[in-house]
């Protein structure tokens, strides 16, 4: 069985004992498609503050000098958004296919990554709910996920970079033809719906989709390489003592190949806008 077959079957694969360099990780990841380049659309980190090479997404709690981020570091507070259930790059018009996360240094306590099977979650919905949500389109933005945690302090430039994009709420997997819920903390509105109604539906679906029977918890060992399919899973990191314990995780992200909706401009959205997300 190839890795891609395994991904289509399981959605998450764990490869233990992969003591690899950034270059090896990038080369291996390219087997699955083009790689996303972390940029101003992805994070608030400025190019001069980056710790890693351009293709590596830094999922650590370290600064460019390999020091722990301070408790009041803006970067640290922004990164806490990873503790919410999300799908990587759902804020991009063409969202991610796979993520590959390499555990270079893992914390002693906590810091597990949990994955929720959004295909099983969709299958478990009753038929009325499936019919109601099948054609809905959501707005996704880093402003929404960060806003949930009270992180609102964004520059005008950052707000422009984090302009909401549209994503289908239900998507069909290109390889398996199976439907799955496409939820994420980045989802903050439904096109044509009043905001409270949209948020309450998204909350309810997320709660249903992340019940224990749909969730795998990965407790990291050093040199684990975990691959997941963002098109049919959500994930989150659990708490750890990130101002004292190093967690050096490096991610490569395989780009998707198409938008999830035909008209990807968020300008038609009748509810929240890039200028005024309310939390
Ligand atoms: Fe993530």
Could you list some keywords that capture this structure?
279 residues; alpha+beta; five-stranded antiparallel beta sheet; three-stranded antiparallel beta sheet; 23% helix; binds fe (ii) ion
Tell me the layout of helices and strands.
Layout lengths: L2 H8 L1 E4 L6 H8 L27 E2 L15 H6 L16 E10 L7 E5 H6 L3 H7 L3 E4 L1 H7 L7 H6 L3 E4 L1 E3 L6 E3 L5 E4 L4 H15 L5 E4 L6 E5 L3 E5 L10 E8 L24
Antiparallel strand pairs: 1-11, 2-13, 3-11, 3-13, 4-10, 4-12, 5-6, 5-9, 7-8
Bound molecules: fe (ii) ion.
Fe (ii) ion binds next to loops.
In short:
This protein is of the alpha+beta class and 279 residues long.
Report on this structure.
The protein is 23% helix and 22% strand. It is built from 8 helices and 13 strands. The chain has a 5-stranded antiparallel β-sheet with strand order 1-11-3-13-2, with helices on one face. It is α+β, with helices and mostly antiparallel strands and 279 residues long. The model is unreliable at 267-279 (pLDDT under 50). The longest helix is centred in the last third of the chain and has 15 residues, at 195-209. The protein binds fe (ii) ion. Fe (ii) ion binds at residues 82, 86, 88, 235.
What distance lies between the first and last C-alpha atoms, to the nearest angstrom? 46 Å
Widest sheet, order of strands? 1-11-3-13-2
- Low-confidence segments: 267-279
Largest sheet, described in full? 5 strands, antiparallel
Beta strand %: 15-25%
Question: What integer is the average pLDDT?
Answer: 94
Q: Can you write the helix and strand succession as a string?
A: HEHEHEEHHEHHEEEEHEEEE
* Distinct small molecules bound, one entry per kind: fe (ii) ion
Structural class: alpha+beta
Number of H- or I-type helical stretches: 8
Shape by Cα distribution: globular
Tally the beta strands. Answer: 13
Q: How much helical structure, as a percent, in the residues?
A: 10-25%
Rounded Rg: 18 Å
């Amino acid at each position: 069985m190839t890795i891609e077959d395994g991904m289509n079957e399981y959605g998450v694969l764990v490869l233990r004992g992969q003591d690899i360099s950034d270059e090896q990780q990038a080369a291996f990841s390219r087997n699955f498609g083009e790689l996303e380049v972390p940029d101003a659309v992805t994070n608030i980190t400025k190019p001069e503050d980056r710790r890693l090479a351009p293709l590596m997404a830094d999922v650590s709690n370290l600064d460019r000098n390999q020091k722990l981020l301070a408790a009041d570091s803006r970067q640290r507070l922004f990164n806490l958004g990873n503790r919410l259930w999300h799908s990587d790059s759902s804020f991009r018009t063409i969202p991610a296919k796979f993520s590959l996360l390499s555990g270079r240094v893992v914390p002693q306590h906590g810091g597990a990554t949990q994955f929720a099977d959004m295909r099983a979650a969709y299958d478990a919905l009753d038929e009325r709910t499936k019919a109601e949500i099948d054609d809905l389109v959501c707005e996704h933005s880093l402003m929404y996920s960060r806003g949930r945690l009270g992180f609102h302090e964004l520059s005008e430039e950052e707000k422009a970079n984090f302009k909401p994009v549209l994503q289908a709420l239900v998507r069909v997997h290109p390889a398996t033809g199976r439907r799955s819920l496409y939820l994420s903390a980045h989802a903050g509105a439904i096109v044509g719906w009043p905001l409270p109604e949209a948020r309450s539906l998204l909350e309810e679906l997320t709660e249903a989709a992340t019940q224990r029977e749909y969730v795998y918890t990965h407790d990291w060992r050093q040199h684990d390489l975990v691959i997941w399919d963002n098109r049919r899973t959500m994930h989150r990191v659990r708490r750890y003592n990130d101002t004292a314990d190093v967690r050096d995780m490096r991610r490569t992200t395989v780009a998707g190949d198409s938008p999830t909706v035909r008209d990807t401009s968020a300008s038609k959205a009748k509810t929240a806008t890039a200028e005024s997300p309310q939390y």
